[in-house]
């Protein structure tokens, strides 16, 4: 069931990202793909898989511009709102993987305020 939700979110993000967004180089599909190994942690907690942190670190490295950061933030916000993520686990994920995000992974984050 969760895989169906993720597939729907990926499809939705592909449609949304298909429109030009200030020359962003990262897509919502890339964000979702990078975080797929994190699904078990985001839903149930426990140990963070190494593949998950590799995906998180790759996404942080890929999202360098303001537009990239805003696309990634909006994608994470959409995914968090449409799946059964635990908001505490989502918020703690960057720290557990040793990266910093300029925003909190939350459905209440205003992604438009993120600046490079």
UniProtKB/TrEMBL annotation:
One of its GO terms (biological process) is lipid transport. SUPFAM superfamilies: Bifunctional inhibitor/lipid-transfer protein/seed storage 2S albumin. GO terms for molecular function: lipid binding. Residues 1-18 form the signal peptide. The keyword Translocase does not apply. The keyword Cell division does not apply. Pfam families: Tryp_alpha_amyl. Residues 28-111 form the Bifunctional inhibitor/plant lipid transfer protein/seed storage helical domain. InterPro entries: Bifun_inhib/LTP/seed_sf, Bifunc_inhib/LTP/seed_store, Plant_nsLTP. This is Non-specific lipid-transfer protein.
């Amino acid at each position: 069931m969760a895989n169906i939700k993720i597939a729907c979110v990926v499809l939705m993000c592909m449609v949304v990202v298909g429109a030009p967004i200030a020359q962003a180089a990262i897509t919502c599909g890339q964000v979702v793909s990078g975080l797929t190994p994190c699904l078990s942690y985001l839903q149930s907690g426990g140990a963070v898989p190494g593949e998950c942190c590799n995906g998180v670190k790759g996404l942080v490295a890929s999202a360098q511009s303001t537009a990239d950061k805003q696309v990634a933030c909006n994608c994470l916000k959409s995914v968090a709102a449409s799946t059964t993520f635990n908001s505490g686990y989502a918020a703690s994920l960057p720290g557990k993987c040793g990266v910093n995000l300029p925003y909190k992974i939350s459905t209440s984050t205003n992604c438009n305020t993120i600046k490079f």
